[in-house]
Amino acid sequence: MSENDTDPDHQLRVSKIRNGTVIDHLTAGQALNVLSIVGIDGESGETVSLGMNVPSDRFGAKDIVKVEGRELSQDEVDVLSLISPHATINIIRDYEVVEKHRVERPTEVSGVLACPNSRCITNADEPIRARFDVLSEGNGVRCAYCETILEENIAAHIP
Amino acid sequence: MRQDHLLTTKQLSRGDIEAVLDHAAEVADDPAAFRERHAGKLLALCFFEPSTRTKMSFEAAIKRLGGDVVDMGPVEMSSVKKGESLADTVRVVEGYADALVLRHPSQGAAKMAAEFVDVPLLNAGDGAGHHPTQTLLDLYTIRENAGLDGLKIGVMGDLKYGRTVHSLAYALTNFDAEMHFVAPESLRLPDPVRYDLQAADADVYEHEEVDDVLGELDVLYVTRIQRERFPDENEYQRVAGRYQIDAETLEAARDDLTVMHPLPRVDEIAPDVDETEHATYFEQAHNAVPVRMALLDLLL
């Protein structure tokens, strides 16, 4: 683990939380996409802190997101692996880290990405959510309906 | 979701395909034996895009099996015009029939529709996606004329938007087939199909000119450059007309070359080819009835 990762001053710089979730080691520049994916837009009132392009010995730079008062489930965070494969999740209770784990690649993601194929049925006015299978090789995903493959800049397809 | 929907040829094994083709041969040998096989059965036809061959041959097939059709009719005359979703349409129609045939302009439409119905659903074309029942009659025609193993097939024309091409390519991965795809750069196989063929370790070659490979082929499968699939009229105009064959072109081919086309053709096969021994596209179109009869007989 890098110096920055354990430095308490660094933790304080993006505010320490009492209960909630810290999503750390995010790919630099992805914090806002992460909030979008996990459905946090500030409207439900939780305190959210985020640091972008924070210096990191291991990655050069990283983003951090801290969400007060909400524990994100594994299913909710695994989808982050598509845009930030090295992310770690810390569940905080009474200022202590009680759980720490890495994101894992899910087998499919639903309702997170929009299919870029304008002729895909998911872009018609139908009662379905766009669903993508996660390819076992590489970092790509594939639309479960029209089979379009996304391999690069997946975050650009977050609606 | 039920397992007997036919959505794509990717779901078919060699055994599945051969079962349908063998049964189609039995039907073709003695169609009268199947005349009352499915009396009282109804097949729903939901065509959201124009069709002559697919729709009429499905209708002929179920009627020759003793059944009948309920036809949604033109989209302009249906509740789709009032804004009804495809999901609602198929949920309503499944109550009227024993199986449902769907053609729709959106890719993935059949996959989605199948999630909403409990009767078998047959994909009769979903945009530029798949057309599995066309492939079954194509394979039947190839088997009758050239054989499916040790096959060298050229597929020419609109490989990007041509759903019959995609379905045929997937199906041929089950056989010992060497596939030669002939198209301009802008109409080459789309990435998802390319990805799957590579994953299946298919024997695939790509060419820009048919002359590069014509002399080696057992079968040449020609497709129409489809104007309606082009988002851009200029792109259509640039490539249309470049991939045409006539009797003179075929002088470089083997005598036993089988020329196929899913039809309708525009001008990619000149009328003078019709008079040659190569022309097999009308036989191919006629094979639609026994093949679809066989498929329905196995399904219903």
CATH T-level topology of the largest domain in chain A: Alpha-Beta Plaits
Oligomer: heterodimer
What Rg of chain A is obtained from the alpha carbons, in whole angstroms?
A: 17 Å
Task: Summarize the biggest pleated sheet of chain A.
Answer: 5 strands, antiparallel
Largest sheet entry of chain B: 5 strands, parallel
Assess the beta-strand content of chain A as a share of residues: 25-35%
Distance between the termini of chain A: 34 Å
Q: Can you tell me the overall shape of chain A?
A: globular
CATH topology of the largest domain in chain B: Rossmann fold
Number of strands of chain A: 9
Provide the low-confidence segments of chain B as ranges. Answer: none
Radius of gyration of chain B: 19 Å
**Major β-sheet strand ordering of chain B:** 7-6-5-8-9
Question: What is the strand tally of chain B?
Answer: 9
Secondary-structure element order of chain A, as H and E?
HHEHEEHEEEEEE
Largest interface: A-B, 19 and 19 residues
The structure class of chain A reads alpha+beta
